Each structure stands twice: as C-alpha cells, then as structure tokens.
Amino acid sequence: MTPSKEVLAKIDAAIAEYPHPESALLAILHLIQQDQGYLSEEAQVWAAEKLSVPVAHVAGVVTFYTMFRLTPPGRHHLQVCKTLSCRLRGCEEILQHLDKKHGIKEGQVTPDGRFSLVRVECLGSCGTAPMMQVNDDFHENLTLERVDALLAGMK
Ligand code: FES
Asked: pLDDT tens-digit profile of 127-137?
C-alpha cells in the first residue's frame, strides 16, 4: 500500500505534530481509512513501518477501536449505538427493523454494496438517543420512520 502524494503529505504533517512519531498512530490510521475506506493488513504493515512500531501493536489498536474498519464498508456505513441510553430508547428495534425491512444485517455489507452495518459503543450523543452514525454524520432521536426516510435518500 502506498498512499497518494496528498495523503502522504497529511501523514507527514500529522507525525510532525508529535514529539514521538509513534504518538501519531491514531491520526495516521484515520487518514489511511479516510483515503481507502478501511485498514487492510497491508495498510497496517505500512503504518507500522512508517512509525517504526511492531505490526502487532498496530493490529492491537485497529481491533480495539470500533471506529476502525478491517474490511471494505458499504457506501453508507451505518454504526448503530448499542450502549445504555440508546438501548433504553430503542436501538434493538432499529437493528431488527434494518434487518427485516431493509435486509441490512449486522456485520455485513448488502449485496449491492450500498450499506454496511455494525453495532458500536457509545458515540457520545446519549442525550439524543437513539442514534446512529452514517459515514461521518450523526443521525439522532431516531424512530423507525426516520430511519426509513434516511435510508430512502441514500443511493
Ligand atoms: S448511549 Fe448511545 S450515544 Fe451514548
């Protein structure tokens, strides 16, 4: 994996912000994921070599944080919060609805590549539960009707 010149410049700029290059790992992983959609094994090895840290360390980080994806996502990556406020306010019903009405199963990408779905820990929007993140955007105070309207607008 070789990042484009533009991404490489952003990566080098991120590294320059820290006194120790390895401290830039999270920032670098975000930049690679933004560029490529997910963090392949090749990308993890590249990041490890770039920062002179063990590949096992990078693998530990990318598997710990749910914001990192290890496989290519759908065009619209749905992250439904499963933590307490969202659970009390109906996240399980939303997940069942996504599966039954829209054929979107947790942990999978739809055959047309349109959607992928994961359950994640608290996204910090507990006061507007239930919520889900779609790519970079938060959608809050969800109802099943609002979920339907949201998905209908996503090609
Ligand atoms: S519990 Fe869902 S955003 Fe915090």
From this structure: 999 999 999 99
